Amino acid sequence: MANIQILTKESGDNTTADIQANRKCVVNVDHVRKKYGTTVAVDDVSFSVNEGEIFGIIGPNGAGKTTTVECISGLRRPDSGSVSIYGLSPQQNRDKIRNFLGVQLQESTLPPKIKVGEAVSLFASFYPNPLDPSDLLESLGIGNIKNSTFKKLSGGQKQRLSIALALVGNPKIAILDELTTGLDPEARRETWTLIEGIRNRGVTVILVSHFMDEVERLCDRLALIDHGIVKALDTPEAIAALAGGNRVRFVPSQPVDDKTLYAIPGVNQIERKERYITVKGTGDLAASVINSLGKIGVHLSDIEARGGNLDDAFVKLTRDSDGSNTLGGSQ
Ligand code: ADP
Fold this sequence. Notes:
Elements lengths: L15 H6 L3 E12 L2 E12 L3 E5 L6 H9 L6 E6 L8 H5 L2 E3 L12 H9 L8 H7 L15 H13 L5 E5 L7 H16 L3 E5 L3 H7 L2 E6 L2 E6 L1 H6 L4 E7 L5 H5 L4 E7 L2 E6 L3 H11 L4 E7 L3 H9 L13
Parallel strand pairs: 3-7, 3-8, 5-6, 6-7
Antiparallel strand pairs: 1-2, 1-4, 8-9, 10-12, 10-13, 11-12
């Protein structure tokens, strides 16, 4: 079983850690390795996905994300390590797993003249307990294009259709790869709402993405994969904090020296500009600064706090030895 580090997402009774701890693990990826010839696509990847969560897989182009989800869906056989879905091996139990796993297809796999309704009904016929195609299209907001041919669809409509095809078998787990690539901002937001709706219906979602705003908004937890290895496995907030990007800017009521500021828990960098002091560091920095300085009678005004940034963390964790870094999706 993968060693999952769980950090709390928010304070209060129902922390993410509490929720995660009570959830069942439905997908377990254990030390998976996969080579194509001499290319090591996946070197050593382990993680678990809990029932009902949206689990994101992020990483630079060529990191091994698609190969990892192909091993999960049974399309590829790992050279070593193992995958289990509800306790079953996708390679040995493909027929059983097919009934509760939905995989988003690349759009090029559909013939141009097939109608939307026909495609969904055709896919429904492959499954023992499918959703009603018309109801599904309605719920995805594309009931009105049932009779349109595939080649006439817009990018957003094609994306919705590919989601419909992934869901029509009534899966417990859906794997969605590069869901919103090529969509305009409005279509992307609509698709996000759709994915949240799918999760609210109890479907576990594994989402491969290279958009940090997307995974920040949607995912409960993320695996950041680089060169076939998991570099970080945690909530988006916790991974963002790895960049050390928390910062608090303020104006103190009286001068404060660097020694006092560095003594505040979490502070690891100080900048001064005119009346302003900016401290950078980790943890709940704003509370830490306000409490520590308040205790010595220093009050703060014009306080501005900014959280860690997932983009910065991504770059920091995946920077190549030559300093380059390629954000990008699977081919
Ligand atoms: P990602 O989805 O993160 O972009 P992939 O899993 O698609 O990464 O690819 C990982 C590595 O494996 C890349 O170097 C890619 O070129 C290589 N690769 C992927 N598929 C194949 C294949 N069918 N044959 C040979 N090499 C492949």
